[in-house]
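Q: I have four molecules that I believe assemble together. Could you output structure tokens for the complex as a whole instead of separate predictions?
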Amino acid sequence: MRIGELARRAGVTTRTLRYYEARGLLPARRGDNGYRTYGEDDLRLLRQIRVLQDFGFGLEETRPFVECLRAGHPAGDACPASLAVYRRKLTELDALIGQLGSVRAQVAAHLAAAEAARYEAPEPRCQFGGTTP
Amino acid sequence: MRIGELARRAGVTTRTLRYYEARGLLPARRGDNGYRTYGEDDLRLLRQIRVLQDFGFGLEETRPFVECLRAGHPAGDACPASLAVYRRKLTELDALIGQLGSVRAQVAAHLAAAEAARYEAPEPRCQFGGTTP
DNA sequence: GCTTGCCTTGACGCCGACGTCAAGCCGTAC
DNA sequence: GTACGGCTTGACGTCGGCGTCAAGGCAAGC
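A: Yes, here they are, computed for all four components at once.
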């Protein structure tokens, strides 16, 4: 399988595959003509990468999963290093969600206060930026 | 007040102030020697920008607030355009928090499944990437 | 031989909010 | 005079994950 077919089957671009190879994440064998050659297992590795990417994992964070698969394990998360990434990611997600929730609350409070101020002192009102709500 | 003093009082760098000016967000008057000159009101504008930046607002999203203050209003969110930004941001935050929560649940499920698999078939275990948990 | 399509490498572009360096001017203290 | 700190503009670097040319090689059909 050459790069174009793998890209189509995985739903990525050839540029993406070359990029992964440049990062050492998905190296390819080469045919006599210099063309990259991939196998079915490369498609599985690629799918693993894509799933994690869709979760928001950075490319480097997918590496343990890929190496785990390449080591012959049926799942990319069968290795301790992968589980460690999962756990770290959960911690990061919790922190991020907490921060965003805090920001959301503060923005909502600012909005409510600003609306209340406009209600209590309705005129003269600022006309800048659109019609009054 | 020159750029260095304003930067110190606002807790930003001079580079940041020059950047804001280049974006047309915080223009400065100039003295005879070409030095930028700022007033106390510029400090207030700058503080408004920083609060919103800390909330994760993009620079362009702070513009309505700044122009509202510059129009003479006591608060940057006294204008409809600012309130619109608040509301849009709340929507974005809700969407983002929802997505992150979904991702968090999926990662947690993957982790639990992987741990269960290791428990049910404890050997031979993959040794790659560290000690077993 | 010529087109067509797929492949190769190399290199620059993008987004945002600046950081960092370079070369040189302004003003004050010594 | 000269040393120093603060100021000026200009321009390139950062981070991630690619997109988008450009110039050219390889294989197949007509």
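A: One point stands out. The first strand of chain B starts at residue 29 and ends at 30.
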